[in-house]
C-alpha cells in the first residue's frame, strides 16, 4: 500500500467485525502499525542510552543524576486528532514528516544542573542529531511551565537497513514534573470557578518550585565541594 493512503479510525470493533472487511481494514492499517513499531523501537534506543549514562555516573561518581525515565508513543486517536487540527491529511507519510512528538521520553532529574549535563552528553553522541531545542527552564512559559525539550533523531536498525526516527525528550526536575502533572489535570477540568485565580496560584507555585530547585541545587553543590575538600 502507498504511504499516501489515508488512515481511517473505525467507529467500533463491532463495525469492523460486522463489515466483512476485516482483512481489508488490517491491510490498510499495516503501514501505520509498522510506523508505530518503529517509534517504539526509537523510544527503547533513547531509554537504553539514558540508562547507560545513569549507570556510568553511578559507577564512576556514586551518583545517579536520573531519578526516573518515562516513555510513551501517542495512541492513534491522538495522532489523527492532531493531524486534523493541523489541517493535514492523516497519511503515514504526513504523520512521519509533520509530527515530532509521537515518540516521547520524559527524564526526571534531581537537580537542574543534571538536566543540562545529561542533555548535553546525550546530544553529543555521534549517532544522535539534535533537531530542535526549547529551554522552558531558562525561559518559562507564561503559565509557569518549566522543562527542557529536545527533538532528536536517532537510528533504528531494521531488516531493510538503518532508519532515522524522531523522538521528543523532555527533561524536568522532580518538582517541575509534579507541577506539570497537576497543571495538566486541572487544565482539563470543566466548569471550574475562579479559573483566573487558580491560574495565578499555579503560576505562583511554579515560581516557588523554581526557587526551591535553585536552593536545593546550591545545597547539593556545597555538599559536593565539601566532599572534594575532604
Description:
- It is a single chain.
- The chain has seven helices and five strands, in the order H-H-E-H-H-E-H-E-E-E-H-H.
- It is 54% helix and 20% strand.
- The chain has a five-stranded mixed sheet.
- It has a single domain, classed as 2-Layer Sandwich (Beta Polymerase, domain 2).
- With 230 residues, it is α+β, with helices and mostly antiparallel strands.
Features:
20% strand; single chain; 230 residues; alpha+beta; 5-stranded mixed β-sheet
At CATH level 2, the architecture is: 2-Layer Sandwich
Task: Look at the helices and sheets and give the structural class.
Answer: alpha+beta
User: What is the N-to-C order of secondary-structure elements (H for helix, E for strand)?
Assistant: HHEHHEHEEEHH
Average pLDDT level = 88
Strand order of the largest sheet: 1-2-5-4-3
Shape: flat
The whole-angstrom Rg is 21 Å
CATH topology: Beta Polymerase, domain 2
For the largest beta-sheet, the strand count, sense and barrel status come to: 5 strands, mixed
CATH superfamily: Beta Polymerase, domain 2
User: What number of domains?
Assistant: 1
Provide a count of the helices. Answer: 7
Helicity level = 40-55%
Unreliable stretches: 8-18
Record field, number of beta strands: 5
Strand content: 15-25%
First-residue to last-residue Cα separation: 67 Å
CATH class: Alpha Beta
Amino acid at each position: 500500500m502507498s504511504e499516501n493512503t489515508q488512515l481511517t479510525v473505525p467507529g467500533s470493533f463491532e463495525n469492523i467485525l460486522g463489515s466483512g472487511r476485516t482483512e481489508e481494514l488490517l491491510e490498510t492499517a499495516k503501514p501505520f502499525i509498522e510506523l508505530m513499531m518503529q517509534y517504539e523501537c526509537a523510544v527503547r534506543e533513547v531509554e537504553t542510552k539514558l540508562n547507560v549514562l545513569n549507570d556510568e555516573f553511578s559507577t564512576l561518581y556514586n551518583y545517579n543524576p536520573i531519578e526516573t525515565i518515562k516513555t510513551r508513543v501517542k495512541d492513534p486517536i491522538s495522532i489523527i486528532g492532531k493531524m486534523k487540527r493541523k489541517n493535514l491529511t492523516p497519511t503515514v507519510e504526513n504523520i512521519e514528516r509533520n509530527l515530532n512528538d509521537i515518540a516521547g521520553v520524559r527524564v526526571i532529574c534531581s537537580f537542574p544542573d543534571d538536566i543540562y549535563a545529561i542533555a548535553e552528553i546525550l546530544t553529543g553522541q555521534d549517532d544522535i542529531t539534535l533537531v530542535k531545542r526549547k529551554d522552558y527552564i531558562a525561559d518559562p512559559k507564561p503559565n509557569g511551565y518549566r522543562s527542557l525539550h529536545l527533538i532528536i533523531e536517532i537510528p533504528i536498525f531494521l531488516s531493510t537497513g538503518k532508519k532515522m526516527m524522531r523522538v521528543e525528550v523532555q527533561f524536568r526536575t522532580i518538582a517541575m514534573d509534579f507541577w506539570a502533572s497537576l497543571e495538566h489535570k486541572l487544565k482539563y477540568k470543566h466548569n471550574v470557578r475562579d479559573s483566573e485565580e487558580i491560574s495565578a496560584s499555579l503560576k505562583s507555585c511554579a515560581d516557588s518550585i523554581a526557587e526551591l530547585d535553585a536552593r536545593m541545587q546550591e545545597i547539593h553543590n556545597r555538599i559536593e565541594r565539601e566532599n572534594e575538600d575532604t
